[in-house]
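Ig-like domain-containing protein (Oreochromis aureus), 239 aa
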Amino acid sequence: MTIKMKVWVLLLVLSSVLCVSADGLYEMNSVSGCSDTDGEDVLILDNEVVWYADFNKHTGVDSLPAFADHPHWQEGMYEEAVANQQICRQNLKMARSAMKDFPKERDAPDSVEIYTIVNVEIGVQNTLICHVTGFYPAPVNVTWNKNTKKVVEGTSITVPLSNKDGTFSQTSKLDFVPKGGDVYVCIVEHVSLTAPLTKIYEVDDVEPILGPAIFCGVGLTVGVLGVAAGIYLFIRGRK
């Protein structure tokens, strides 16, 4: 698998700049890519996506958290991303002409992992993560099942991110409330696969921990019995 062969299906333009502030050194990357059916324009700061173009909704998406500073340089970025897509597809057409004898490259995901954001507590809301990496071309399609039934509400998926070897990674999330015995399945589909990949997460049927309440109850009982025994011995001694 070589980057040269991958130009047949996808063109990526990457730029990188190191930003210096009073707090330290930061790395900002811009990724613009296109294929026959899809396009991507992403701004990444220290491996975190801070902005991306949603070509389906025809708008730029600011993915910074609400409490962060939202820079004004984002104005006009979506229009620039659209222009980059036109240039990318022209370059893709020329690349096809120059490399018409190369077969299309397809790499199946080499890793699918499923885990929760925080430790599981029965009845307390949590988030399941399904991380898929090592596939080419982008994207993958990720769906969720709960106890064999498809789940749509509370699901989301990131834009594909390029790995150093030219493959991609993508992450899907599912908000859920753990209940003992529930089984969740992350289902991954890709053009290179003849059958979907699945990863299972089972919620252990664990009863809530009652240790502090039990200890409190035992201590109170022992205390009451101790007082009663003391009063009994005092009265008996006076007789």
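The chain is about 25% helix and 40% strand. Residues 122 and 207 are 8 Å apart (CA to CA). ok done for today
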